[in-house]
Amino acid sequence: WWQVDKVSPIKLFDENKILAGFHLRHLLYQQGCHEYVRGVVSKVFKLWADKKINVTTDSEWAFEDVAEAMQKMHDRKNIGKITLLPDKAPKPQQKAVKEKEKSITSGESTDTDPKDEQTPPPCVQTPFQKNT
């Protein structure tokens, strides 16, 4: 999407452009602008409710798929917001399913190797251990 390594302040000045932002927590808690922020947020929400502005949503994800959503954002493949929804069902794990199908079709055993399993340390009691 928009990838820039460096921003030249001289070029911005020559092109009459500005790069700006603010730190909301600083504005709220260190400068005491609670009422100002509340008023601005109310105006923005009213513009959104009146459909004068809209939010561009790229995709919606289940909480369980947060790693994939973060990877998409990290790879800069989104345009708009990536939203996590608590009631959305997670995507089926196709990678694990494909690997299992591949091993079955190739005649490999699907059983796990006992030496690959880790035994818990003595201080951790599993449900299958008896108290001694």
Automatic annotation (TrEMBL):
<feature type="region of interest" description="Disordered">
    <location>
        <begin position="79"/>
        <end position="132"/>
    </location>
</feature>
<protein>
    <submittedName>
        <fullName>Synaptic vesicle membrane protein VAT-1 homolog-like</fullName>
    </submittedName>
</protein>
<dbReference type="InterPro" id="IPR052100">
    <property type="entry name" value="SV-ATPase_mito-regulator"/>
</dbReference>
<keyword id="KW-0560">Oxidoreductase</keyword>
<dbReference type="GO" id="GO:0016491">
    <property type="term" value="F:oxidoreductase activity"/>
</dbReference>
